[in-house]
## 1
Amino acid sequence: MTAGDWREGHRLLAERIARLPAIVRDAARDADASLDLGVTGIRRLATTGIGSSEAQARLLAHLVAEHTALPARFLPPSALLAPGPGCAEDALVVFSQGLSPNAQLALTHAARWRRVVAATAVTDAGRLAPLRARGVTVVQFAGEGEFGTLVRVIGPLTGSLCALQLARAFGVEIPLPHDRLAAAVAQAPAATAGVTSTVLAAPLALVASGAYAELISNLRRKILEGMLRPMPPVWDPLELAHGPFQQAFAAPATFLALTRPDAAEEQPLLARLEAMLEPQRHALVRLPASLPMPLCLFEHEMQLNALLLSDLESRAIDQVRWPGRSREPPLYDVSSLPIGRRMAAHVWPEVAALVAQGCRTAVLPLGSTEQHGPHLPLDTDTVIGDALAERLCAEVGDALACPTLPVGCASEHLAFPGTLHLEPATLVAVLRDTVRALGRHGISRVFLFSAHGGNAEPLRAALPELRRACAPVAVDAFTDLRRLTEVLHAESEACGIPPASAGHHAGETETSMLLAVDPAQVRSDALAPGLLTTAADPQRLFYPDLRANAPDGTVGDPRSADAVRGARYLRAWTGLLAEAYRREKNHVHATGTQNE
């Protein structure tokens, strides 16, 4: 198989789909287990999910609202970025198969809800620990390893079974016939045998009756993400004659009717629809389920899976290297937005509450106020330090982001007006006093890092003294400037940017990061190449005076800077910090001592 061959993704999906009957049988048995979520006395239920998880969240809200006296509704994730005081007596259930960054946004303010549940396929204890530390109850379902393709086929089914299990915990009585459900799932694709590629090539619309139309968002998404076709509308049979039919009549169109045995009124209505169509350009495809709502969802999922495989093959769609894959980060990874973990944005009772709930680590970034060439502002390192701290806290889940210290050791830039500087001893004194102050408020661990290279060596040298002076608060730090440079340059080279252009100060890498964080601050009309070097030890260019070697203050070439690459660099840097954060934390837990 050659690179870019569509058959790789087709094979992955076909293998997963073939395993689904057995997976569904086992997951249904697991879902039969009772759950005690501690939801007695809650006032309302809110659910949310992104992508395929949206369907599971909608299913749970529908079942609870229809079959219990508890008010329940689905909310889009952005509605939960800043929940108001009215949710203090409510429950929130967040569905996310892989705990995607954006799904975690909904969990940021867990402390404001009476009860929060995360339904996920993730089993990694390290990723779940921060959620549990916030008081989130984790309910798991199968599908953790389902990566490699844009569309997913396992999680939508196992997540829906989890939704049924959670519905039972909220008082919904619903049977789960394991073997019958697995058999229906295995037999469902046979109904698609006569559907040709020509039928699928026409614009698609789904037809579903009653409340079922509200529960099939993932079937629409399977056509969008799987077939890479426009997301189809969903029409109630009685709605078709009021605009949809007229709009579709003059062109080819295919109507996929999702029928079920508990909706006897569907067949006469579909017969009427069929009589309205023009056979030369229209098709009505009935996709029958043998089980009633909501179990019919599983059969319709399998039928759409069968159509998906057929369409991928006929059109050679690559599900592994999908269009736009490298351009997703700015909206896919919105969890790094400054929501919920910036200590300075809280009022003091909120900080006290977070510490009391187990958030007892503070991330303290070191920045600088110094020149960054003619195109970046003096506070570049401080802005990037804030962005990294927020991303790191979103990644680890159990920390608060302190404001970045805006002045550091920057003697190498003092020849440029505007640069401020602290002597190393002064910086260490500021850090000592800051850590001690945090300790007074219940913080038991402080993790330090610097967004300015000039702080790295003073911080490394001061760590033993800081640890002694600040005990019993544990002090950890990431100070490996060489490793950071290697990682960032590897990322830039993977994007076609040579190390000399990526640079070491105000070059492509740093300019791209600021474009990703605060693009309005980049003076694009002043972008120009600075000193280009591949020196083995670039720090020698900086000391004692960078201006002697780089008259405009730039080491690198910022002209090709790009916000999408900037987001990539920030993710790589955050990954290094998270690795160090967890390594030091685990070392203390295992030995009771800190690394010296």
## 2
Amino acid sequence: MESIDRVRVTRRDMLRLTAGGAGMFMLTASGLAVSSGVSAGGGGLYVEAFPTSPLILSPFNEPLPIPKAMAPVPKADVDGWESPPGPDNQDFVTGAPAHTHQLWPGAAPVTDYPLPLVYRIKLEVAGHDFTSSSVQPIDSIGRDTVPPGTGNARPRKLPSSTIYGYNGTFPGPMINFEYRKPALVRFENHLDVDNGLARQDFGAPNFSFLTHMHNGHTAAESDGNPAQGFVRFSPLGRLDHEAAYEPGEWVDNLYLGYPAGGDDREIQSFFWFHDHVHGHTAADVYKGMVGLMPLYDPKIDSGDETDTNGLRLPGVRTQNPDGSFDVEYDIPLVLYDVALDDGVTPHKDAHTGTGETHPEWWGKSYFRHLPNHGFVGDVFTVNGKAFPVLEVKRRKYRLRFLDASVSRIYELALMRSSAGPKAARSLGYTGDELQGQYRLPGAEPGMKLVQIASEGGLLPEPILRDSFELWPAKRREFIVDFTTYADGTLTQAGDEIYLVNTMKMTTGRLWDKADPTYKIPVLKIVVGADARDDSLIPRTLREAPPLPPGALDAVNDKATVTFELQRGRAGADPEFEWLINGHWFDPTTPAISVKKDSRGVWRIRNGGGGWVHPLHLHMEEHRVVARNGKPAADARHPDDTGKEDVVALDPSEDVVISRQFRTFVGAYVAHCHNLTHEDHSMMFAWEIVP
């Protein structure tokens, strides 16, 4: 089988494990999806069902994992590699010539940049524990239940879930990155190594990976996107386009640390890297392919709060002998929701599975490729742990939030309650109301958050907030002063505060109706002793790049290029469930070509139907010009004053953005970051040409 067909057809083969899986599906009044041409009584009935995860009995009893900076590989070791990095040696693909790097340190405009620090990250199969607590198997009503094959309903420990992880961990490594000091990461595929763990029924079937640095100002060959691809010789001698690295292959992704246009206003502050294999992005990210890259600007945001030439944001920097550096009081918080298999829920969605159950996978992560709206889990985790505890000093901290969930949107606040967390089932909740497992009765506002950055980097000015939304792939950064509550009273050692999610979202479609009782504690914060604090909350941060002349005139200009996100069925294949401008994703056909060093004003429109869409655009960040015809920013989106790489689209919303296309050429993509939508096939290719 030729390689291009192997990638695309293997995906379809996996998603069509039943004859009924290949048909068109229609929603009935009952919410069931029935294959067209197959009657409900003929075996074609599809019921969308999700497991109820076992109840974690001892929440908030294990520490929050706080990642340490990864060390670069010593130069002497890199020089001894069989195929060391270089400008003409960007990847190894069986039967294909290596890519070359468009821009290597020493060439204009990075003539004075040093050679890159080199990191080595292996894609590995491993086990991961979301909690060390005992759990109680429960059913959808919240009652104790007996897992299949066990004979009793007693509490027990969870088995490890199988992950595909960067260096076998979830979240994966964290690289602390400094602007103008390039980093090269060699990602190697070791996913074929069988260590006896159950692979389960999700993840790229050929064990491939494609790592995207979200959202670097990065050359196309290092961007990690399925439109870039490479040429592979098939067994028949045919040249084929592929875009994923299989076992035994590797890629050197180069991150220059060069701000777009050489403009310091374009400096960003928090990246993450994740998988981007087309058709399996959701499955691979859900299976653990998540890593972190906080960014530091040596001029004004070096991670050293004592640097009087900088902004003095919270952080105490320590340089390590291995070439890495850590920053105390600067903490990434990765939010991720997971569902755990109950052993009795059918493994079937619109085109995957036969309705079989897997009692042998009880307690392991459960995933569906194509639920009707998107995938949401009922256990919320932070940095890979359910209900962890963060101990803080009485001082200011910098907290960097990332939503690494497949579909879930959060509304987060810092709250306190004298009652403490209570199991939702003990309060009488059942069904979807059990999502999150615990509630925080009597929760009151605890602390203010001072937003200093969005996913595009530092804002022009800080924003004081009581709460904030966090959409898939978005990042938000805050300074929190753990000496003082929102009402002005002082904290005491031993005080407890909770990071609380108040957005009920029982499907991947959009949030449910507001519910004042829905307060889900996801992280417990315990205040400790005093600590020295030399940090400040500046009045100004980083000036935003200006909008181009006439940008506001484009708001009502019908000629402005428009990309509309739509629900639809292209033909009879549920693989193409989600569309942009009526088309499914074609990596070989760019929807738009733009010239290098040009700029454009684009309209991003939600085509309606009651869904929300976080649209991510690769390459440079954008600025929001207007929402629904009104100039940015509004009360709902106060950080539209800064730069962004994800357009948060409410139902039927119309957003006009301004972007530029500098430094590099090549193929890129834009897509919905509800990863269920992206995989099926809400994405378009676009390109930058000379």
## 3
Amino acid sequence: MTVGSAAAPASDLRAREAALHERLRSLTSLVVAYSGGVDSAYLALAATRVLGPRALCVTADSASYPARHRRMAEQVATQFAFQHEFIHTGELARPEYRANDTDRCYYCKHELYTDLTGLARTRGFEAVADGNNADDRGDYRPGRRAAREFGVISPLDEAGLTKADIRELSREAGLPCWDEPASACLSSRVPYHSEVTEAKLQAIERAEDIVRSLGFRVVRVRHHGDVARLELAREEMPRLIEPGVSEMIDRELRALGFRYVAVDLKGYRLGSLNEGLTLKVV
């Protein structure tokens, strides 16, 4: 299993799984905000098994959504027979989102939940659910404020399921994304107060694809203007000194328009762009 805390003991895990199923059975129908990551994929699977065609899994496609995630979402949805649709969201057209203040995620989720709750209302679905889990409670996540405003529910969190629990249940269910490294939208690679643009997002996605093509699993390319700052899993960092690896990364990322390619010696850590900021958990 990937780095993180251990899943709950078997008896607790089964109790939490049962609590999730009971919560889903309490609903007549549900729209799942499905990104293709492990949390939303497991929720989509559970909802499909409990509610059948009364569960609709919806993936929001936009410039900030990586193509590899789109492919993964489609693959899992097909393999496990989800009722699945794509919608297009236009968060990049919102000045508040492009401004990239510390509450950028709020405007992204506001855009998403405006669309999903509208879809649910028009088509007669009782509720909209996200993939937040019990480990997310203490994080700085302004998107949760938007979820509360729109009445979006978090069944995984309600059941007390942690990320490790979800990975274990996903592994048991055969979900191919069970050990996929945690990820976030491409805009999370742009430092706060630096404008989010489609050109930056395209450069970030192409740069990460290049690094990932060399076998690195955990990759973030932070966009600092003419500097690309690489964050890699610490255990993968020694590979950078293998013959030709650093040279290829430097050459290919410079070809994307970066003047300098730097490696963050602390390695990848969740929310590194929050470091040094005073943020209020909402």
## 4
Amino acid sequence: MGNEFLNSDMQLFLGNRMDWERYFTLRRGADVNVVDELETYRSVLQTVDDICSDIAASARDHWHEEVTLVNGRVVVPPHIAAGYDKLRTAGLVCLPLGTEYNGYGLPLLLNIFYLEMIARADSSLMTIVGLQAGVASDIEKYGSDELKKQYLPRFASGELQGSMDLTEAQAGSDLGGIVTRMTEQEGRLFLDGEKIFITNGGAQVHLVLARDAKTYEESKGSTNGLSLVLCPTVLPDGAANRVQVSRVESKMGIHGSPTCVVAFDHAEGFLLGRRGGGFRAMLDLMNNARLGVAAQAIGVAEAAFREALGYAGQRVQFGAPIIEQPLVKSLLTQMALNTQAARALLYRTCAMIDLNEALRFYLASERGASDPNRATLDDEYERNLGLIRFLTPLCKFYATEISNDVTRKGIQVHGGIGYMAESPAAHYHSDSIITTIYEGTSEIQASFALKEMSKGALFTTLERIRDEIEPLRAPFPELVGQVCEAINKWISQSLPALMGDPQYALLNAKRVCEMVIDVFVAGELLLQARLDEAKRALAHSFIHRRMLAVEMNARRIASGDASRIRRYDQILRLES
């Protein structure tokens, strides 16, 4: 296995698992040379690969270096600044931004590859460039023409960076608790309040979720009345805005990523979208950020796996490299298997998002308006939108939990040296932990997915898996049979136990998510195995392991009821 950042999973998906012909036809019409377009994509990604190799080498010995606050200015460690400058010099800091603003206009799938590669090289740097594209995309979608012209070319050039300012002391997962106030005075908007745990809080452009003073009291405690406001640190006339970073946090991981307390003291801002529509606008940014965090988690997991694999091959005990020990080999195999499984879910979801976005673009065009199959395409778009809303939290939930597990196994492979604070294995695990927390904890992601299941997304997903793998019965009869049994028997039999009691359903949200992920990934790996001989052993091992897990989770769900919660109260001594 080489050390290339543009890995074989990316190559397989780019070349064989995305319907580029349809994508480009929907976006631009029939006169597109798909081969040339893909060659351009490969060229961009290869450049990212080369830069990431340099970034990783420079960052390796500087992981412990912290962000500092100097006279109110956030200062990142030198290796973070150098890594950002390398990407900026190459013009690679805002890939999805439209070409009219000097961006590349690349699909989400390509941006996910990019973020995963950067996260593998330096996960702290990834948080900065990940927000770069996310913030720019929200401005592109919701900003006025004036704001877009003023800010977006500077995002594309790397001159400006962005942050997403949501969290407050009393408003973490529950954004209805936001009290930062937006006040209008003589047609201008001003912000007052404090945000905490703001990633890249030293950025020049803040997207702030604030409560409109006009509806402050009646909207308090809900997400109604929230507006999304662009708040720059320097106003268009060159004057300093009243935005201040009052503290930089010290964390157990991602030390080179600024995590800040940001205060707004009647700072002027500019509305994005409509008043009161901030929560909906922020959801776009949050959903893209969740996919970005999934990519970050996979990048860290890949780095941890390669570090462990290399160590196990050269560490000799009892006269042989420890990789020859069956239990060590099993640990490494689990690390590889789970990392590739998380990729399969994420890449497939992103490909679906890209195709659906291309379909939305087509339906809004003159070509789409006169399409005789318009009604069918509208239905396809809405159906896919429901699947995307369901799969997005699953991507974040799965990839981040997998990353925690893979990086922990990496420490185990290294033994005592892996527990040392200066070891790369320890660094990777420390960096991975946050991924299960920010942009919504794993528990929140499972709850979101459960909500989408109740709208019919679960049955649509299971039906799609069955339809996709049924033609694969001839080459993979046993494996297809196991997946279909997991869907038709175990998942189906467990669902009635969840229908009658919302609390019991929430209690089992993670189990249901794991079952769905297991069969979805199994189906995707079978589709990949049809294309790539190297994926056959992976699909076989995953399905044999995880279909047993589906059965166990299903039996656990079907055998219980809400009385479990009462027992938990007793164990925790919450009952008098």
